[in-house]
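Before going further, it is useful to explain how the protein records used in this thesis are read. An example of such a record is reproduced below.

***
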Amino acid sequence: MENKILSMIETYEEDNDFYGPIAIERIHEIEKDLEVKFPLMYKNFIQGYGSGGICGVNILGIEGNDGVSVLKTTERYRELGLRKDLIVIEDLGEFIMCSETGDNETILYWDRVEKQETIRYDNFQDYLVDTFQEAIDNWD
């Protein structure tokens, strides 16, 4: 993970902001359930942090055996028309942030009412830097 992201987390992390590390075997189980392969950067985030974020950001992921927010949320939005090759990484109410899967790492904004996609970031790392920075700017 990029040093800038690690620095943001180190500076702003509070107790219980992240679930904690997840075994790669558990990640593979969830990929199988969703019938996708997580992009590498997102997979690395889950492996290191599980789910969560800083300054009010909540990146969906895996919460050990307690739950799987990425699975449940993605399945719910697929019922509403979300493409099968996308996973939900952040649920913001009116819209969601999604990641393409496999070798594609594009991050999309998906409007659940209009069912329209808009490309927002080239990859998970760019998304995370921007999202964390915006949250930090609003937090301070």
